[in-house]
Design a protein that fits this description.
7% of the residues lie in helices and 47% in strands. The chain is mainly beta. It has a five-stranded mixed beta barrel with strand order 1-3-4-6-5.
Amino acid sequence: MNKVFLIGNLTRDPELTETTSGIALCRFSIAVNRNYSGSDGERKTDFFNIVAWRGLGENVARYAKKGNKVAVSGSIELRNYEDSQGVKRTGVDIVAQDVEFLTPRGTTGDGFNEAPAPAEKKRASLQAFDDDGDIPF
């Protein structure tokens, strides 16, 4: 079974593109802290490249930005390619099946509140009720 679940912060704004056939593709990366500290007392961080397709990718591009905390579930995908010098390399991507946005609205990924949007106050209006005496039940 190929299943991965990661919680981390976006290291850059998501990049939304389309394939030649018009399918939406969003690429982003997240930084995930390890559960333990190294011998120097510092926590290590791993960086993962994420790919989200179609509507999921469009939503990530629309609502997530650098610094936001997200939970990603998906699968690991290895891809082989040649670099510009002709050396064969292997890349690792996480293909997202689900992305949950964990940073609350109105905050940035660094935890500071953005200026709130001005709220429109709506007055409740009462509408006349025509009671002709018939009971519907």
